[in-house]
Amino acid sequence: MNSLYVFPFANEAFSVFALILLVVLANRNLLINKEKTKYYTWLAGLISMELILEMVFMAIDTPSTSQVYIVINRIDNFLGFSLLPFVPAVFISVRRNYNKKLNLWTFIPACCNIIFLIFNLFFGFIYKVDNNNNYVRGSWYYLESGILGLYIAWLAIGEIRYLLKQNIDRSDVLLMSTIYLFPIGGGVIQAVFERCYVMWPSIALAAILYYLFMREKENKVDRLTGTFNRACFIKKMDYLNKRMERTYSSLLVAVFDINHFKQINDECGHLNGDETLRKVGETLSSSFKNDATIYRTGGDEFCLISTDMEQEEFKAILMDVNKKISLLSPSSLLPLHLAVGYAIMNDDDRLDVYRTYKRADEAMYIDKSSAHLQEQK
Question: pTM value?
């Protein structure tokens, strides 16, 4: 074996080993649901197959008249080029939970690619392996790069749009964009320098980084309600504390608490209580959009932070929220209402945004007490 291939073999082998560990970790992680675990397994499996096929190619890519070498080389290249677009296609399809019609459209370029490769066996316009076992790129070789580039662009744009809709920090979008630079850069380098096998190791690296990114993102989310959790709330408040004076001109903080939630748990059961929390979190998140972010700060309490919402806009949305919440009660005998308090940052709060939160929390308790008094009359 050519000594020049020893280092690339190490890259490929270590990448496969790392992907195996990725699957093991994904299956051990209780925070990732079964669908996502299946997605990580499929993705790691496809990438590992491509890495193994590339190792086989490097092992037999040497001038030879041996029919065994020639046949293996041709089969190896056909399989490698066939699987190439299925990696991002599976990523797109499973990651988004698309409907069947859209799943079909997702795989059409990948299936067309297989048709091109079947014709290539006879005409060699993408690549060919001659009778001396020499691999040669054809005049249409970059058709493969175009199909892969289409998928990566499709995937990257979809991911970034999804992240932007989640009201996440713009730094997450920047980090996700950087992760996509690895497969793009690796693909460009291998397309330009034919014997520089860096594309699949770079894709494996991107898959591992993506897994770590998603784990970090999931640690910010409350598993029951789908809203951001208390740790994320504190991080956001600390961030605002540091930047409020020079970056933001306004801040609105609102605190929501479910009235008589303990009674719902006691009389309707904790499963119904959990379902009520989930629906309330979903209603708040879907109603307050754009800059507003919802956090579950503990028990049956939620908090909203916005640096771009006017008081009148908040009140108008809140009226609609109250109507929706009233329809979510698990029992007609237990009407569901929210105690709400909000506060807008004043000049004194610029030195400590937690003051705004404290005033909102106090206003919520006043609203809660007022509701109790009304019920007693």
Answer: 0.74
